[in-house]
Amino acid sequence: MNNQSFTSWRSVLIGAILIPLNSHWHIQMTLVWLTNFPAILTLLFNVIFILLLLVVGNHFWVRYSPKTSLRQSELLTVYTMLCTSTALCGYDMMQCLVSLMGTGTWYATHENEWITLFSHHLPDWLVVKDVEVLTPFYNGESNFYSSRYLSAWAIPIVCWTAFVILLIWIMLCINVLLRKQWIEHERLAYPIVELPYDMTTVDKSASKKRDSLLTNRRLWVGLSISGGIGLLNGFSYLYPSVPSIPIWVTSINQLATTKPWNAISSMNITLYPFVMGLGFLMPLSLAVSYWSFYLFWQFQRIIGSQLGFQSLPGFPYPMAQVRGVWIALLLYVIWGGRKYFRKVLKEGVTGIFKLLTGTSANQSEEPMTAGQALSGIIIGLAVIFGFCRLAGMSYSFAFWFFAIYLSLSIAITRIRAELGPPAHDMYGAGPDHILTSILGSRRIGSQNLSVMTLFFWLNRESYRAHPMPHQLEGFKLASRVGKDSRRLILAIMVAATIGAISCFWSILHVGYELGMESKLYRTTWFARQGYTILASHLTHQNETSYVDLSFMGVGFVFTMVLMSIRSQFLWWPFHPVGYAVSGWWIIGRLWFPLFISTILKWSILRFGGVGAYRKTIPFFQGLILGDFIVGSGWSIVGIIFQIPTYVFWGG
Questions:
Q1: Residues 6 or more apart from 630 whose CB is under 8 A from it?
Q2: Which of 292, 310, 334, 398 shows its CA 20 to 30 Å from the CA of 163?
Q3: Integer Rg of the chain from CA
Q4: Alpha carbons 30 and 36: distance in angstroms, whole number
């Protein structure tokens, strides 16, 4: 590895300056105008748009001052920082957190009895209970920058920001331990990083004769097609007399109205160009698995309806099955890399001993030594357990909650590294559902349940806006560039800190101005759902759910069987990672363009070979860029002129 650092101080500074601007844009899109939702996707279109502006600006700057122009590694550092902050500020993560801080008080009524049931279990240093402070936040037409409002929110914001920083730090340390196995030994595909890497690559060596991706004619053909569709549809949205090209063709649910076909859930025919582009970059067998298993989920629903499984109203229990799937995937991956993980844990324990005795020195090329990473995990978790105990959660419950959460985070990071899907929706797969299914709400207790609800922003749908995969993808980019990635840890931590603070600021600013309840209602709905589930658990306490556990077992066994078949027969096309991420609604918008791109990729490889496939990649990357550029442009136009505009992708 090159001794030159992947991350420079000026790249960290550029990223730090751009993060608040990006957060404000993000909040305007997702909360104020309810248009595009970037963090629901794996490749963040807002970050790609900003990266493109930097690449174009850097291209012109090279002509005037080549020595001071940004290197590829610096551009990719900014990219990684923006990805980290965008994931945190996502529709599913901190936007939900801010609402959780006030919703338990604001929506409490005599009818729902929230005050009696759980209000006393919510610590004052993590939520806001002053109704006079919350009233303008939910009603709007006020100004956040009042000393009373600022002081009321200050302590919860500081505490939650510290928690976010700790969580990001623990994820980073885990990724340091995973990095070598998944990047260098197993050489996983990491399809998500292909476009940002190619966008920032300029190789003018005489032997390779390769120029920037942005000068490739095939890219511009793809960009013109998807961008042209976006421009036309955007003008058609503003001026209905202008014709449009339908991207959303039809909903199967509207056509299938008789039994058993009406059991089909959220199935649509769409033609998103950017999804076709992302599907083309995915490994072929995994792309097939993605949409094939989505159809298999629908098949289960149809069969269940036909056979009359009315006694199992949640059949085929996708949430429970997915829990079993990801647990099996993680165990299989750990078993496959057991020699490496045993070695790295041994090095970590030895490294901790050296740190304690003062004999440690980082001579490795890793971002940090195994001892430092393991120490970081232990210390970080100890502080988080203390945080939870101060909030009222027991140590044992906090241990199991975060053990499951971080295990799921590792599984998602693996899925992204191996499959690179356009989205990975794993709703209901987290520790809240697992623990209540195993223990039952009665055994968990009201205090633990109440504090767990404050982490609903980690549980609801935050697995599709997860920051941990972006970290490992940053390490992958550093590996591809061939640079030392030690400073990248600092860049990510800076991004997490500024990203968390700027997210709080962006939401509170528009909340007091426009009103969370009147204008920004979607994120309050998420928070209300969390407290409604809590009230249900406290009012109707339940025991262990053996039905859920049974279907978790079905998912676990099914995954183990599939992995065993794959290990015996290399030609077997179906990988259970596709089963894990295709059980919920979002794949219903993506499966058809993925099906199209799979057919195109197979045909090109079959009849043109690998050479033809490589030549075609820029065209499909152009499909992605065209959608992302024009879609971002329309959102900016809407924000500037305060009007609704065309949405190339919605959540």
A1: 226, 227, 230, 231, 234, 648
A2: 334
A3: 24
A4: 6
